Fold each of these.
Amino acid sequence: MKSTPFTVKRGTHGLGLFSNVAFKKGDLVTEYTGEKITTDEANRRGGQYLFEINDDWVVDGKGRDHKARYINHSCAPNCYPEIDENEEHIFIYAKRAIKVGEELTYNYGKEFWNTHIKPKNCRCTKCTQARESGVK
């Protein structure tokens, strides 16, 4: 068994985060970490690793040591993010049982979808399979 719970490797959208351990539905998988910055600073910086906590604060997970930044979008995700009641932490939980070797995914939300994913077509497994089978 691997000593770390995750492996970063090629996934559905480039690099992805893969589980080295099994998770049960509801298990805490990881925390989305990074520099906490104001929304104004996030708008100035831009980038794909910005996770909005509320209208005033954003976590910038761009550093490669922040493993949750590698969790890719999926329209049929196996994880979901939850912001704690103090709006200090972003936790990622298992939406269903996750097997060893499975890529970790969550839904990035409507705003990210419309801005970044929809114009290029979603590449998650669900959407890719639907396109290949001719389903809309």
Note: Helices lie at 39-45, 110-117, 125-133.
Amino acid sequence: MGMQCYICGKKPQLGNQKTYRGKAKYLGGVGRKITSTTRRVFKPNLQRIKIVVKGEVMTKRVCVQCIRSGRVQRPVVRKPFTLSA
């Protein structure tokens, strides 16, 4: 599956990186100019975590946005504390 989120399918996207020269107008220059444009890759922030899928615990690569938004169910490591009467 490579670099792809197991939940949402987010994967690397291509974009542009621009190189500038010159001094900004607000600093007294004539303005910034774009001198070149090169391709770059925006990679998703993937983490290897244990998740519960159909009642089974497995380790998958999931993006942080899915983890923080609650789209991932994490396994219960231990039972919650209870008081005995």
Note: The mean pLDDT is 93.
Amino acid sequence: MTLVDTNLLIYATLADAPEHARARAWIEERFAEGEGTVALCWPVLYAFLRLITSPRVVGRHAVTVKAAWRVTVAYLEQPAVRLVAPGTGHAAIAAELVETPGLRSDDVPDIEIAALAIEHGLVLASHDHGFRRFPRLRFIDPLV
């Protein structure tokens, strides 16, 4: 099972993104694989909401929060999607990840997402190669 990162959701959603066609095709293939093959988590979904509603980030393609929420719900309603949340092992995994050299405050969301993937035995799919710094994290970039 694959935990999908924010950037892939953004690329798959925004038709003008250079990565749109590849990200959309990849996500649609994952959705077609069947029930429970794609994992999403609230940190990714709220980041997606924040970014696609921001004119600073996506310019004139920014959408309203209400419209972004509808897209988020559509992703959650896919039969292939399973929502994952921190469990009892999350804090111990996060404590291990914060020992990674060179982390800054901007990396805190990555720690949370990486810890969720590790805790649930998921592969993280992202176009953000900064995740490679976490040695226990299984990572793929479906856009390369």
Note: The chain has one domain: 2-140.
